[in-house]
């Protein structure tokens, strides 16, 4: 296993992008969130993914968010910057900009909307990896992209020295096992589904890129570390604790509930970009999130 691949283990947080009441990126809140994550023991940070509302950030805003996160992290944890697009040219531009900022690696989503064949995916990811000499993690989330990269395709891509891992968000344990078989032990296999992270670890996963760790970083880190240490009873107990919170955080479109939870923790406003919308403090889900966080000791 290469030294680069070893970086992508443990719990990486798929960061929200805090915004002010006018919908502008809130740099101070973002910096505060990064510090809270690092204090919670998180192993890495992932700005500008799905949870970070990358789809509604302008190109300039996207690069700005990555810059803030990378600057505040200051090398204390790896920064895996979302830099994907359904346009190969745009993905290359974003990856180049992220490399100039000094991030650890980029995360590249399977091209959405275009519905490329597997051969098109090979060309897409290979073109990015050839153009930008920086480690890349492929992001497979067919529930959002429609297109689904197959394990055999990842196996072909894994031969490229810059393509070092995958965020597999299918919640399919057989798929995870297939990826491990096709790509080998050196390839980083990261879960993209909080509901199934524990069984994912059990079939050979190296970690998780988590939404829930925005709200409960220590809980998710403790779960991962219990599993890694072979304390399976403790890992199982923590898994069921986080499931209560996970169900609420995915009760409606992500990251609406995550921002509502972080609002109660003083780490974000409720503001989202349209077509998503803010959760009202009068929404029953807002109160349910608060009650769950109090039960877990996250909120006084």
Automatic annotation (TrEMBL):
The keyword Lyase applies. GO terms for biological process: diaminopimelate biosynthetic process; lysine biosynthetic process via diaminopimelate. GO terms for cellular component: cytoplasm. The record marks 55, 86, 90, 112 as: L-lysine inhibitor binding. Its EC number is 4.3.3.7. The active site is at residues 139, 167. PROSITE patterns: DHDPS_1, DHDPS_2. It is found in: Cytoplasm. GO terms for molecular function: 4-hydroxy-tetrahydrodipicolinate synthase activity. The record marks 50, 113 as: Part of a proton relay during catalysis. It comes from the Bacteria. Keywords: Amino-acid biosynthesis, Cytoplasm, Diaminopimelate biosynthesis, Lyase, Lysine biosynthesis, Schiff base. Homotetramer; dimer of dimers. This is 4-hydroxy-tetrahydrodipicolinate synthase. The lineage of its organism: Bacteria, Pseudomonadati, Myxococcota, Polyangia, Nannocystales.
